[in-house]
Amino acid sequence: MIEFINVTKHYPGRHHVLRELNLKLPTGQMALLTGPSGAGKSTLLKLLLRLEDVSHGTLMVNGVDVSTLKKRHIPAYRRRIGVVFQDHKLLMDRDVFSNVALTLQVSGMHAKLIQNRVRAALEKVGLGNRIHNMPATLSGGEQQRVGIARAIVHTPEILLADEPTGNLDGSLSTEILDMFRDFHQHGTTVLVATHDQTQVERLGLPVFHLEQGMLQNSQEKSA
């Protein structure tokens, strides 16, 4: 369960980026986060990752009060979340395997288990035959799928995506978002920030719409 309870985020000398936000996403559900540029979508995701601190209010994630989480507990908390970025954030001097394996290697996992996990994640995103390719040899859609494999390789409870199809054409956007929906159908809680209204209408998922840091009437649909 992700729950924002009267959450406000502001910076000194600036307007409120998020204002008394109340939002609830049940465990295992998928929803879309929409709104114009500057509405607060990226800030909301940063709060969930504890890259930013809540100014006021309470943010609960699967029983953890993220708004008061001590710094020493943040790394363990983040390991429960997978993140997909619009610009992939791949290491261009490392092959696909190394990009996906990095999170597991940092955690100290045994090499054989890492190999099995990475291969399974790449198979899920249709890149099992690209495991030793360098990122520069892949298409934009394939690079995004590497980013998704990296996000799911540690079997996270929650998957967050910030404009994951922003640089892709229509057919690739459909492919990527359907992949997220498949993860949701297997029990992962998924929140995707997007400005693609065509995909919003196609998917028919719950929508949280932000305007000037405030949640407008959300569209509650069956996920």
Automatic annotation (TrEMBL):
The keyword ATP-binding applies. It is found in: Cell inner membrane; Cell membrane. Residues 2-223 form the ABC transporter domain. It comes from the Bacteria. GO terms for cellular component: plasma membrane. It is a peripheral membrane protein. Keywords: ATP-binding, Cell cycle, Cell division, Cell membrane, Membrane, Nucleotide-binding. SUPFAM superfamilies: P-loop containing nucleoside triphosphate hydrolases (SSF52540). GO terms for molecular function: ATP binding; ATP hydrolysis activity; transmembrane transporter activity. It holds the Pfam family ABC_tran. GO terms for biological process: cell division. Belongs to the ABC transporter superfamily. Homodimer. Forms a membrane-associated complex with FtsX. Part of the ABC transporter FtsEX involved in cellular division. Important for assembly or stability of the septal ring. This is Cell division ATP-binding protein FtsE. It comes from Acidithiobacillus marinus. The gene is ftsE.
